[in-house]
């Protein structure tokens, strides 16, 4: 159908171009220049329509899910299934509805975290660098495929960017698998067997989210220390650019931490969601019978709050550095203005001396031409006047530069 519509659009565009060209030839048979102009316009319209249709041809099909599926079983095994997969097949195999799949298959760059609970069926996790379903006996993760590069999402710059995102998803799932085996398979503690599988994976998933944000916060903290040292040593355009980029990154990850924290608190605010998270024990429960889930989510909320606090402190430090940099630039600007005013004062004094010299340089009789001491007297007087004017102006400038928050005499300005 899409191929048929594309061919139909091209045929329609060619008919319109031919009709426009025919009308232009008919109406301008006596004007060759107008004919050439209309011909060029028709060609440009045809080329623009071809470019638009070529872009439409590259829009990827939406019935394929370009990802690999990682399945973590209850016994600690991790099974990888290579994609892409048909969306209808995914929904049928894992008992999903199309709206559930849309929550998992979100934008890789702009992701709004969410924990969606389907009553006694599964728990949907859609966070940055982790997308998956938690069932009573297995956990299913959807990881972007490294080998299959598509044009989705449109914000991905190139192949290297896509591979970096896919590797981040893969590392997150590998970390979850390793942590699950260490905590519940290899070193089983007393009482761990009593914890249902969905609660184990839920706790580890949220720990992985907090760990990813914490690692990024440490990376940004190291970058901030380097930028601060360079800024305090010498302020350059490069250091200001680095500070602006760092502030943008920190604001971005601060929003990610806030949204992740909000996703957990939203589940804590709804009793029916916490009751629905019991996938192994499917007996009928009261709305207040969810103490185990509530304690689990409160512990994860505390971890996320600590990450938020660290990122907020880093954001405040960047804001302080930005203000300090602005103060230093203002101080340098004031020094330049002061130097410029001093140059203007000296120029004013020399201009006064030039004025005196110009008066006595006139070819007019003034009565002191024959005085042998006239030159030295006028030169000395001019020097004294110039020095006095410059000294008084500099003294007033220094008084201007003194910042006094309180003056005993309000009428005394200087």
Automatic annotation (TrEMBL):
Family matches, as InterPro entries: MRS2-like
Transmembrane segments: 343-362, 374-394
Subcellular location: Membrane; Mitochondrion inner membrane
Assigned GO CC terms: mitochondrial inner membrane
Membrane protein topology class: Multi-pass membrane protein
GO biological process, one term: mitochondrial magnesium ion transmembrane transport
Keyword Methyltransferase included in the entry's annotation: no
Keyword terms of this UniProt record: Ion transport, Magnesium, Membrane, Mitochondrion, Mitochondrion inner membrane, Transit peptide, Transmembrane, Transmembrane helix, Transport
GO molecular function terms listed in the Swiss-Prot or TrEMBL record: magnesium ion transmembrane transporter activity
Function (record text): Magnesium transporter that mediates the influx of magnesium into the mitochondrial matrix and regulates magnesium metabolism. Also permeable to calcium, sodium and potassium ions. Required for normal expression of the mitochondrial respiratory complex I subunits. May play a role in maintaining the inner mitochondrial membrane potential.
Family of the protein in this entry: Belongs to the CorA metal ion transporter (MIT) (TC 1.A.35) family.
Subunit note: Homopentamer.
The protein, known as: Magnesium transporter
Organism annotation: Adineta steineri
Lineage: Eukaryota, Metazoa, Spiralia, Gnathifera, Rotifera
